Amino acid sequence: MHLGLVTSSATAIPHDISAAIPSPSVSSFQLGPLTIHFYALCILVGIIIAIVLTNRRLTKRGVEDWQVLDIATLAVPMAIVFARIYHVITHYTDYFGPGRNPWNPFEPGSVWAIWEGGIAIFGSLIGGTLGAWIMCRRLGLKLTTLLDALAPGLILAQACGRFGNWFNQELFGLPTTLPWGLEIDPGNPAIPLGTPPDTLFHPTFLYEVIWNSLGALVLLYLGRHIFFQWGRLFAVYLMWYGAGRIVWESIRLDPSFVILGLRTNVWGAIGAVALGVAIMIIQWKRHPEPEESPFIPGREPEPAKD
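The structure assignment produced for this chain is given below.
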C-alpha cells in the first residue's frame, strides 16, 4: 500500500480568457466588529434549505411540524464537528508541523478555522447521521424516514456549500482551454509552480453545483414512489453524489493523501456508492412492503383529544 501526500501536476495551456468565469476578489466583509465569511454564509444557506425542505417532506408523512429542528440541534453541530475532524485527519500536514500552532483559534491555519475552508462531506455524513439517529431514538422516529426526507435537501445544501469554494478560490481543477474555465489569482498556493498567470482551471465547484442540483430533481421525482422508502431514497443519494464526486475529485489540484493510487476522497466517494448499493439491496430484501408509518413501532404519538 502506498500512502503519501501528492499534488497534481499542471501544464500551461494557451487559451482565450475573454469568456472565463471570474473568481470573487473578496471572500469576506466586515459587519461592525465581526468578519462575515461568504464560505460560512453558503453553508448556512444550505443548512436552512435542507431543514425547510426536510420539514415539508416529513410533515407529509405525519410528523409534527418543525420537529426536524429538534433533530437538527444535535445533527448539524455533530455534522460540522465530524466534517472538520475528517478534513484535518486527511490533510494533517496542513495543520501540524514546525512553526505551526494548530490549536490557537486566533491563528490562521488553526484546526478551528473552518471559515478558511476545510470541511469534508464524508465526515459530516458520519457525524450528522449519528446525531440524527440519537435524536430519532429520543423522538420515536424511524431513521430511514428521516434520511429519505432529508436526501433532496441535503444534496441541495451541498450545492450551496460549493459556492463557498468559489469565494475562497479553492478546490479548483486542472488547467483547461474550455470557455468556462475559471480564473484564479496567480498567488494562489494551490497553483503548481511555473504555471503562467493567465491559466484557466476547471471550475469543479460549478460541476458539482450542476450535478447536485440535477440530483435533487431526480430524488424529488423518485421520492414520489413508495419503492424509495425504508432508506432507499437516501441510498440513491449516496450513489448519485458518490459517482459525481469520484469524477470531480479526480481532476482537482489541491494536495491530498493517496492510498493505492487514489486520493482519500475518491475512496470516500467509492465507499458512498458501495454503501448506497448495499442499503438498496438489503432494504429491498428486508422491506418490500411500503413504509406506512414514520414512527418506531410502539412510539406513535397519541391522537389529539378534542
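Interim note for the steering committee: The chain is about 50% helix and 5% strand. The longest strand covers residues 3-6.
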